Amino acid sequence: MPFKLFGFEVVYAVSSNQVRETIESMAKNNFGVIFVTEDASELAAETIQRYKSEVTPAIILIPSHNGTKGIGLKEIQDNVERAVGQNIL
What is the value of pTM for the model shown? Predict the structure, then answer.
């Protein structure tokens, strides 16, 4: 995975329990940013939702090797709209 080349810690999780536990563990270990694939985010939606109101960790949704579902882009658009007052993207 290319993320390892840049020094990212990469964790593979395939079940909803694994995804939730990984996010919780990273949050407890003071990770500032957690990148989660859109596919994995669907397995732990409630956990991700809980961290949306927190400053850290910032959970960023990215496309998987299967391509994008548009979930991550929608999140960015919603955050920009909330910050600016309108969707400028």
Answer: 0.79
